[in-house]
Amino acid sequence: MHARTSEQPKRPSALEQAGGTRGMIYSALPALAFVVANAMGGLTVGILVALGVAVVIGVERLVRKESVTPALGGVLGVAIAAGIAWWTGSAKDYFLLGIWMSLAGAVVFLGSSAVRWPLAGVIWNSMTGKGQVWREDRRSRFYFDIATLTLALIFAGRFVVQQYLYTQDEVGSLGVAKIVMGYPLLAVGLLVAAWAVRASDRRLRALGLIEPKR
């Protein structure tokens, strides 16, 4: 009779949580395609090429039997951005939705910390089924406050930089900023969140609020 061995599931890295290298490339391609095609053939060409790239990426994800939600979400996001640009007739408006979503993200994450429900902790502990026991410990809340405020700062930075480029009609620079300030910055935020998770878990185990690691 063989002894059973149980291995602790490996926690995904910050890069894996952000979608991995493939996810980072996929997120950048529609914006890059739009900027290049818009510069070469005008707004309509840019919109059609960006939509085409998004659809191809979505189909490729489905063929690889990846989750349907990211595939559909990616196509829908590009479609909405392209629709706004087509409606206004301005190439820079392709980036308008992302700019204001960054502002909304900054406000929501900052607000959650202000009301003592830091969103990084709420999301992580809800997803992992740990509940909200971490809120009973002030130091754990502090760890997740740091992670939440880091994410709020990332969203705010995206908004400030891209809104400035938007007002300056810098379509090419907006594309670069969207790519550079997208997944790479998100990976930084997830690194801080991963630190908060580990620090909180150690603290809660020491207090006996969660089961010790096996």
What does this structure look like?
This protein has 214 residues and is mainly alpha-helical. The chain folds into two domains: 20-88; 90-214, no CATH class. Helix content is 75%, strand content 0%. It contains nine helices and no strands. It has helices spanning 14-17, 20-41, 43-63, 68-88, 96-114, 119-127, 138-167, 171-180, 183-207. Helix 7 (138-167) runs antiparallel to helix 9 (183-207). The longest helix is centred in the C-terminal third of the chain and has 30 residues, at 138-167. It is elongated. The two termini are 22 Å apart. The model is unreliable at 1-9 (pLDDT under 50).
Itemize the secondary structure elements and their pairings.
Elements: H1 14-17, H2 20-41, H3 43-63, H4 68-88, H5 96-114, H6 119-127, H7 138-167, H8 171-180, H9 183-207
